[in-house]
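We keep the chain:
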Amino acid sequence: MPQQQQQRRMFTAALLALVFILAAVSTTEAGKKEKPEKKAKKSDCGEWQWSVCVPTNGDCGLGTREGTRTGAECKQTTKTQKCKIPCNWKKQFGAECKYQFQAWGECDLNTALKTRTGNLKRALHNADCQKTVTISKPCGKLTKPKPQGKFHLL
């Protein structure tokens, strides 16, 4: 009999321990407050609109650009940003637009010009660039065909 009593005591102790553990876990869970999800801030601020990059010196290199946006409750409606205009880009198409050009075409004898087309490769700072551009340049030395034979005028 003493062995049965000892087993009952151990069973009771184990059962009480289990009850205490379950009570502790449920108390801990109940004590935790569910964190409310962060509310997404609804902003009435518009998108930033950026001016073209204005170089500090010359027509390329480091410079600044101005940004503005609208909105009644915007904390910031204007700001200045540093920018850079690459010095090897063709400025006639916009200093912030980079084009990949094809080979020069044949010389047009009527205009003495040759042309080539460029496709937009990259636009800095969301610049408004044309998709394709065409440039012309003088052909250079034009050689007129020489007569094949010798002619004598009398």
Summary: Strands lie at 49-50, 54-55, 61-68, 78-85, 97-101, 113-123, 132-138. The longest strand covers residues 113-123. The mean pLDDT is 77.
